[in-house]
Amino acid sequence: MDAGRVAMALKATMDPRERAAAEEYLTSVRKIIGFTPVLLKIVLSEDVEPPVRHAAVIYVKNMINSYWEEIPEEETRGENRATVFTIHEQDRFVIREGIIDAIIQSPEVIRTQLAECVRTILRLDFPGRWPHVFSKIVECISVSDGKQWFGALLVLQQLVKNYEYKKVKEKTDLVVHMKNVLPLLYQRMCQLMPNNSQESVYLQKIIIKTFYTLVQFNLHPDLMTPEHFVEWMELARQVVEQPLPEETLCVDYEDRPQLVWWKIKKWAGRLMGRMLERFNYPKNSTPEYKPFAELYSKNCAVPAVRTMLKIVMSNGEDNYVTPRVLYRALTLLQKAVGHANTWQVFKDQIMDVITQGIFPLLCHSKEDEELWETDPQEYVRFKYDILEDLVHPVSGAASFLGACIRHRKLLPKIVSVIEHVLNESSAEPQHIDGALHMFGQVNAFLIKKKTYKTFLETVITSQVVPRASDKVRFLRARACWCIQQYSRFRFAHMSTLSSVTAVVVNCLLHDTEIPVKVEAAMALQMILYDQEKVHSSVLPYLKPIILQILEMLKETENDELNSVMSCIISTFEEHVGPIAVDIANQLASIFADLTSGDEVKEDKSVTALGVLGTLESLLDAAEEKEEVINDLEPIVLVVVQSIMQRNISDFYEQAYSLICSLNFLRITPALWDFYSSIYGAFRQHYADVVQLRNRGPEQVFGRSQPPADAFGNVFNKQLEEDSESYAAKLLEVVLLQFRGQIDTCVKPIVELVVTRLGKEIFGVEFRVLCLSVIIAALVYNPELAIEVLLSLRVAEGCESLLDHFIKHWVNEVATFNGIHNRKMCLFGLCAIAQLRERPPVINEIARSIIPSCIVLFEGLQRAYEAKAEEESESTDDEEEDDDLAKSDSDENVSGGVAVVEDGLQREAASDKLETDGIDNDDDSDYTFSDEIDSEDFEIYETVIDKEGCGFDEYVTFKDMLTTLQQRDPHWYLALVSGLDDAQNKSLEKVFLLAEQKRAALANQQMNAQVNPDRLQESCGGFNFGSGSA
């Protein structure tokens, strides 16, 4: 392999004129043995230009990520799939032997890419093909060369990351080696700590991060002794207390969080908080971890709390602490509040901690004011960024405050602080904001205590409502936020609630500051949700409110406003009709702005999804108003068409939901024209399109005839069985829905399904769905379906497919479960039983037809009973929920509703974020009856499932036998002569039920005489009396 030519090709990829030829060359030689090692050689060559080296390392990373893993043969199923290429073992050996040295020798920009390569290689090859990697790591760490330390530690970090989320028993291969490496790491850490240079601290940071990754989710008992664990914890505490070098004070505040001295403190603080949470309560520890917990609780917990308390109390203008380090300190203290040994550390000075450490964090800061002034839209984005909020000191302070209030004696003291600040005439606006912030954070505790009811109403009336008109803009925003927090409070006077609502509406419509308007919108949403009494007072302002929120959504691109819009639309769905078109046009315009450009950015993608959801809420609100839907349809189709034309697959599911909402009542020519776009997307992204998730397939097609040319490709794609199941269901529905209209499609559909049945099938459910398609063909037109089945053979020289299918069908009816599948079987058996010209195979199985039908009826009866029982339980649950809701709304019920304060909700979300990846075994107590089909397809309501549409299996079965008894007595006797006494009794029960259902159907038809077309319309326009069956 010519390294020079490869390097030239890599250089040519940067020239637009030569890129295509260069990429073609690289693609043609990438499978040649020696190619990937040559790329690595180019990466390490100092004679090669840096851009070319960087291009080479990117190519190496892509090659390793894509072609390192050997895919087993059983996972390459598919007739037309080419042999899967993987990098040859000879090349892989060369790369494994040289990549650690490559990391040691490379500059940082290349080292980062090589570290990702190492992680992939270790994930796939350790310990099997690369068992000696630890020997190389230990060898590098054991020398006195810091550069080799750095490369080895980087590789070790990637190795540990691969085991981060694995269970204890799955970490054995790692633990065997790490228990020997950890003492060496500890030794190196102790050597490095006296040296506070940037290079030394960088190495320390890698060691701390590696240790955190190793122990954050589970600490293997064999990894280290409890004494050694305590030594590591003391080391982490010392890192947090380590003084900063003078040079860091010259760096701007916004740049300091990126300094390595602060980053290592952040990781050490994170480690301390995690270990305090896990090991500070020995009584809750399992036996193997009890020694660790006892030593930690005795030696580490209190020093850790004192260290973090010092950080919180020292934070201020004169002593800067980065936000992430401060958040970690607050998180540890919040957890310490719940343990007796650590609570004692700051119990006596807790009010000083709250007033001097927590309260300043809750106040409007200089940074907040600067961001508001320079970029109010960014201020709104920052304030509502949940990921940022989860690790922000303000959320940490709120969580700490919520934990403290659980100590009963503290709530009155905190309330006293709030009162003092709010009533002080000379209080700074920032302090008033902090007091109102604190007031909002403790809402859950104050609302459920009767003793504070008068206090709450007084504060809201005298402090919150007036602040909504304050000249200081951030106080107006804070007042709206407080109203949102207390939206569920039951005011003693309706006038107070009215004034609260009025100031919110006023801020939303007339305030000039975007952050204030956004807070007002959020407050209005919660008031509408919690206070039904105010709906009538908001209604006169409905149109300007909606238009204002849409304008704000366009300006801020804040997804939270989508939920406000959806709430308003659902609350006033009877009144949005006149402005529905204006709303839809605005939403379509906003969606177009959000999705402009070649790629949709991730932050805009979330808001765009919310816009589509709001559009769907608008359609749902107008679903029974056909004239409104007609006006909305062109607007929605433009939006969906843009998604299809640009292949934005992230929005496909929402796009199909919009289409389902449009054809809920009817289907128009424009929708059928649009079907070609859906089919085009199916051919490109079939797995997304074929799954009709939210509505039955018959609602997608309505009552118009579908294009037949699309059916042949449904199974021709290499689909997984889950997706093929949706395709099979689609074919079944088409045959049922368009009876007598698509005769030319019956043969290709049956042939398609028969071909698929001849291949390997892994799931019983999918096999039943395929058989149901053939049965649907028999229901559609038995003569035509039989003609098709007679023309096909199971194998060369064997019996016809019809003979094979019929014999197996009647003997396997017990495999059809659920209500729909059993009904399909019954209608199919009735269809073939009453044929005038019967193929010989049907005569052969005559004595099995009625017994098979009886088995199906018995199964149906069980399924109907189980369904009725489930619906009854659901109704009982709803009634119980209503009773609970009434009880909860009664202000005199002691205890009230258990509500978790906003700060603790943030903490839970933060913990969820930090512990992502832990196995969560679901020991659910729920059980389900076998008679309730748990598959998605049972919820689809086809034409044979709708009540009162002529598709009653009991009536159809009895009429079939009655007709045959009169028309063809010999055939009738052949069907019933073999029944035993039990089967005859079952048959009588079926006949009795048939007459009861016939009477009920007659009653429905009498009731429908007021609108004679209504019954047939609701049944999809299908007349069961027509056709051959």
From TrEMBL:
Residues 22-105 form the Importin N-terminal domain. It comes from the Eukaryota. PROSITE patterns: IMPORTIN_B_NT. Keywords: Cytoplasm, Nucleus, Protein transport, Transport. It holds the Pfam family IBN_N. SMART domains: IBN_N. SUPFAM superfamilies: ARM repeat. GO terms for molecular function: small GTPase binding. Its main location: cytoplasm. Residues 870-883 have a biased composition (Acidic residues). Signal peptide: none annotated. Coiled coil: none annotated. GO terms for cellular component: cytosol; nuclear envelope. The keyword Nucleus applies. It is found in: Cytoplasm; Nucleus. InterPro entries: ARM-like (IPR011989), ARM-type_fold (IPR016024), Importin-beta_N (IPR001494). Residues 867-892 are annotated as: Disordered. One of its GO terms (biological process) is protein import into nucleus. This is Importin N-terminal domain-containing protein. It comes from Trichuris suis.
